[in-house]
Amino acid sequence: MFFSFSELRAAFKELGRDGQLETRKLGAALRALGFMPSEMHLLELTQHVSLNLGGRVTCDDFIDILIPKVLAETRGCFGPRELHLAFNQLDTNGDGLVSLPELRQALRSLLDEPLPAADVEEVLRDGDLNGDGRLDFTEFAKMMSR
């Protein structure tokens, strides 16, 4: 399951009021996005929200809660073919490497909004194992499997 930030915000707005979502509506919000949280997971989320967020969730809190769940559910879903297709879409000039501008453009398209330059640079640094300032396919594949 892949969601853009605008899709997550739209799901949040459907159930939230005044820019906030009540704790008791977390399960419905997760299910609206296709997740099937267990009662235990909902209980843990509810306790986290009650203790750390005052019982209400803002849209940013909602996205922060969902990102690890989305990553956990999609980990291992990419085979070699899918990785090559994704890499080739990022490598817009076809040189076999993903540069900072290519990564920035891809993330902007994926997220429906520009990511701060420092965040894009951090993503590249984290994946760039040989330190050349670009991602080759092997580095990209390792980064996607984390």
Automatic annotation (TrEMBL):
Q: Which UniProt keywords apply?
A: Calcium, Repeat
Recorded GO cellular component terms are: cytoplasm
Could you tell me which PROSITE patterns the record lists for this protein? EF_HAND_1, EF_HAND_2
Q: Which SUPFAM superfamilies match?
A: EF-hand
Q: Which domain of life is it from?
A: Eukaryota
| Gene Ontology terms, MF aspect | calcium channel regulator activity; calcium ion binding
Q: Where is the EF-hand domain?
A: 78-113, 115-146
Please indicate if the UniProt record lists Calcium as a keyword: yes
Q: Which residues form the signal peptide?
A: none
Q: Which SMART domains match?
A: EFh
Cite the PANTHER family for this sequence: CALCIUM-BINDING PROTEIN 1-RELATED, CALCIUM-BINDING PROTEIN 4
Protein known as: Calcium binding protein 4
Q: Organism source for this protein?
A: Eptatretus burgeri (Inshore hagfish)
